Amino acid sequence: MHVNDLSGPFGDGSGLVLLIAGLYLALSAWSLLTSWILVALISLILILTTNATLIGPRRRDLIKQLERSAPEGKISLALSQHIHNPVLWATSQTTAVLLLGIVFLMTTKSDLGGSLIVMAVALVLGLLSSLLISRRRHTSRQEAADQRAPNNVSASTLSEKSSPATFL
Questions:
Q1: Cα–Cα separations (whole angstroms), residue 96 to 10, 41, 82
Q2: Chain mean pLDDT for the chain
């Protein structure tokens, strides 16, 4: 059995355990109407839903493609592009920062306004960090393509010359 076979159920199960434990603690020590708990709970439900719809299917497709096209460990260009899917990376990065925002709420126990601001800032930071990582990857790939281009012609120059927009 491979680790990939276990990571999906463990990921889903850990999210469910986290939600149940959070609800238990919220009901036993606090109230669900406490502002920071309400914001954190809604955020967690949105994170789990987003992960199930955006990360889950891409992760399953990636694992299937890995099993088919890279059994000996060699990664094709198509598989590499699938691994570096911008939606997958942006969602994962943003989710991580949002979870840190929830931990911050649990620590500071802010009022409603403060809780909403914390989660909005976490969302913006997550999206910005994923944008920066995406740009860095794109720049690295472009530099690698420029090094492979013949006669010291950059790949970006070749793509600009062959793009339909240059003929207009």
A1: 17, 16, 21
A2: 78
